[in-house]
Specification:
The protein is an alpha/beta fold. Helices cover 30% and strands 15% of the residues. The chain has a single domain, classed as Aminopeptidase, CATH 3.40.630.
C-alpha cells in the first residue's frame, strides 16, 4: 500500500496531498502565487496590476485535480515578482542592493541581465519594480520566508515519491503570455511548450508521451523553444538517478483574459484536459520508470 507523502507546512505554500499516493508524480506551480506582502507593495514603484502580469495566474487551478489522481500538488502563495522560486537562491543583480551582501551573487546569467533574478528587478512589462536600491537584508529575508520553504517542501515530496516508487516525475507547471508564444499572431500560436533542458532532465519516452497525448487533443506543442526549463528542472531532473523533471508552459490565451486577468469559460475545459494529461503521465511513469523484478532463471 502506498502511503501519503508529507511536506512541511508553511504560510508561503499551498501543499495539497492525496489521501494515498498511487502515482510517482509530483506537480509544482512556483509562479501562481498572488499573496502580495504589504511591505512589498509599499516598496514597489509600479501598480499591483503591473506586478500581476508576471503571475502564472490560475495554473494551480488548472492542475487542482492532482491529489484526487494520487499525486501531491505544491503551489507557491507568494508572487513571482516578490520571489522567483524558479531561480538559483543567489541569482541576483548586486546593483539592486544597498548595504553589505550576504555572499557573492551569481550575477552573470542571462536571466539576471534581463532583470529576472531570484528577486526580480523588472516587471513583466519591463518597468523597474523599485524606485531605487533596496536593502541587502531583503535577500536573506525573502530566501528564508519564501524560497527555502518552497524548495524544502518540493525536495521532500520528490524524495518521498522516489522512496515510495523507486522513481519520481516532477511536472513543473507554468503559463506563457500569448504574445511570445508564437509569432505574435494568435492564429499561429503555440499552445504548449514542453521543456526538458534539451534532453537533460527527463526520460525521452516520457517527453514523447506528453507530446503525443497533448497533440492528440488538438494542442500545438513545441519542445524547449522558447522555454527549455529553469532552475527547477535543472535541480530536480536527474534521469540517471530515476528523478525526472518536465516543465510545461501553457498559452494563457487558452484559458484567461490576459488584460482583465480573469479566467475564461473555457478554463474548465482546459482543466479537464490537464487532469487527463496528469493521469496519462502518471500511468506512463508507472509503466516506464518503476524498477522491475528480475525474470526467473
Amino acid at each position: 500500500m502506498k502511503i501519503p507523502p508529507s511536506a512541511p507546512e508553511h504560510e508561503a505554500l499551498d501543499c495539497r496531498l492525496p489521501a494515498r499516493q498511487t502515482r510517482p508524480v509530483v506537480v509544482a506551480s512556483p509562479h501562481s502565487g498572488s499573496t502580495y506582502p504589504a511591505e512589498f507593495l509599499a516598496q514597489a514603484a509600479v501598480p499591483l496590476a503591473t506586478l500581476r502580469r508576471a503571475e502564472d495566474a490560475f495554473v494551480d487551478e488548472l492542475f487542482a485535480t492532482a491529489p484526487s489522481l494520487g499525486m501531491p500538488l505544491l503551489a507557491a502563495r507568494f508572487p513571482r515578482s516578490y520571489v522567483d522560486a524558479n531561480r538559483e537562491p543567489y541569482e541576483l543583480d548586486p546593483a539592486m542592493f544597498e548595504g553589505p551582501l550576504p555572499r557573492p551573487l551569481n550575477h552573470r546569467t542571462t536571466r539576471v541581465a534581463a532583470g529576472l533574478g531570484m528577486i526580480p528587478r523588472v516587471a513583466a512589462s519591463g518597468e523597474a519594480i523599485y524606485g531605487g536600491r533596496v536593502p541587502a537584508g531583503m535577500i536573506e529575508h525573502r530566501l528564508d520566508s519564501c524560497w527555502r520553504p518552497y524548495h524544502t517542501a518540493l525536495s521532500t515530496l520528490v524524495e518521498q515519491t522516489h522512496g515510495l516508487f523507486g522513481a519520481a516525475l516532477l511536472i513543473d507547471a507554468h503559463s506563457m503570455p500569448s504574445v511570445v508564444s508564437g509569432t505574435g499572431q494568435r492564429d499561429c500560436r503555440v499552445d504548449i511548450v514542453l521543456g526538458d533542458n534539451h534532453g537533460e532532465s527527463c526520460a525521452p519516452e516520457l517527453v514523447e508521451c506528453a507530446e503525443l497525448w497533448l497533440t492528440g487533443r488538438g494542442l500545438r506543442v513545441h519542445r524547449n523553444q522558447p522555454y527549455a526549463g529553469g532552475f527547477t528542472t535543472q535541480r530536480y531532473g536527474r534521469p540517471g538517478l530515476a528523478r525526472h523533471a518536465l516543465q510545461i508552459e501553457i498559452n494563457r490565451a487558452l484559458y484567461m483574459d490576459e488584460v482583465r486577468h480573469e479566467k475564461l469559460p473555457q478554463a474548465d475545459i482546459l482543466a479537464r484536459t490537464m487532469a487527463g494529461f496528469l493521469a496519462e503521465m502518471g500511468d506512463q511513469a508507472l509503466a516506464a520508470l518503476l524498477p522491475r523484478p528480475l525474470a526467473a532463471e
